[in-house]
Amino acid sequence: MSRSTRAAGRRSAPKANRSRHKAHRARTVSKAIGLTLVSALVPGSGFVMGGRTKLGAFVMTLSIGLLGLLAFVGLTKRDAVLTLAVDPSQLLIATAAVVVLGLLWIWIVVASHKLLRPVSLTAVGRLAGSAFVGLLCFGIAVPTTVAAQSVMAQRDLVGSVFASEGNSKSATRPKVEDKKDPWADTPRLNILLLGADDGAGREGTRTDTVMVASIDTKTGDTKLISLSRNWMRMPFPEDSPLHKFYPDGFYDPDGPAEQPEFYLDAMYRNLPLAHKQALGPSDNEGADVLKVSAGAALGLDIDYYMQVNLKGFESIVDALGGISVNINYKVPIGGDYKGPSPNDDILPKDYLQPGPNQKLNGHDALWFARGRYGLDDASRQERQRCTIHALVSSANPGTLVTKYQQIASASKKLLQTDIPQEILPAFIELGLKVKGAKVTNVDLDKKKNFPSGQNPDYEAMAQIVQNAIANKKPVPTTTGTPTKKPSTGKTSPAKPPAGGTEDLNDACAYHPANP
């Protein structure tokens, strides 16, 4: 073969290659747009239709394999998913992976369209094809960006609220050896729930809401126990350093009968000021003090606390899209007692009116939980339990997915806790059990055990709690039917027999006194 013949063969090869790809191109712009859409829905198919069979088969296999892997992990490796969701370093890797996959998807769409479009294009056809590809790329970029931002919001939330054991201090947190199964030797987990109010007009922080959630770690069944804000003589265990300062409970033996600075709601602020680090180094001394004292009052070992800033509570409710509650009587918005005479009072600005299934925004939900002008503490505590019940019910998957960044941002400002990062996967699993389990209120028998807050019978209340946890039915101590509506702050809504338990679905149902 002569040199000129070989040269001619080499020159003709590219033409053959170009004609082969030309044969696979769409004949019209509309058909090219349709095939490009298919390539976006089935990544790699555009390469196959455009003649790049090997590349297309590789991309399609990779895409299907990746989807299959994600489905397999999501359905069978729940522990691994939960671990990733609460590990800041893994969340950072996940963010990078989401961005890279989004960019690759966009490249596949653009490259497929270039391969499929007609060789000869009018200006209108080129503009139409480019506009459609741009819309497809935008449609990919938006969810990719949202997904990446949501993952980063989760990382920020975990890092801001849940510190690792090595980077946090707690004088009362239990030491967990088995991080994967921390409840192996813990039949019940006791968590202190605090509602802290450090708003305008308050000197320091007071915990107007104090509850204990006692959770069965096997079933998720939960007992909610409310402590009254005006309890005095809150006890400390004999082995606690604070017991030597207050052997007969937190109060001043030489003071008057009523001592607001020795109320339960004042302990968070006053005890750390009076006895700094008496329990040991801590990131939240007030919460540690309340864990020890509330545990002694109820006969429980409190494991962890979760503290909610009441102002931030509005943000989390709004982020969830509101909560639905049944309102059985008028609940005041605002109002306060300022002196011995009713003329000194600050009257409520308005009232939440009775009605079933009322949808409340953050502002109104906060007042539903804390409004007390003209009402008693028992009705307030019940509404607080119903608010928690409504929050748990409102946290559905659809809302969490669509509003996750807003929820995470609100939660970061809302929550403070000593739950360590290392056991968050187990806590999420337990939370899912609680959502589908039975939640009941434990009645501590106010009439018998704390008709006033000056000298509550903590020993009797601890026995009620133990009976409730053991599911022992109490002997009724009262007769007759209690009123369902607090009238002037002297009575409470309908309650179970003294010392008994009541399902929150029943307690929070619509049962007005005058329907």
UniProtKB/TrEMBL annotation:
Give the stretches traversing the membrane: 56-76, 88-108, 128-148
Keywords associated with the record? Membrane, Transmembrane, Transmembrane helix
**Cell envelope-related transcriptional attenuator domain mapped to chain residues:** 206-394
- Provide the residue span(s) of the region labelled Disordered: 1-26, 468-515
**Lyase found in the keyword field:** no
Q: Which domain of life is it from?
A: Bacteria
Q: Give the compositionally biased regions (Low complexity).
A: 472-493
Q: Which family does it belong to?
A: Belongs to the LytR/CpsA/Psr (LCP) family.
> What protein name does the entry list?
LCP family protein required for cell wall assembly
Annotated source species: Kribbella italica
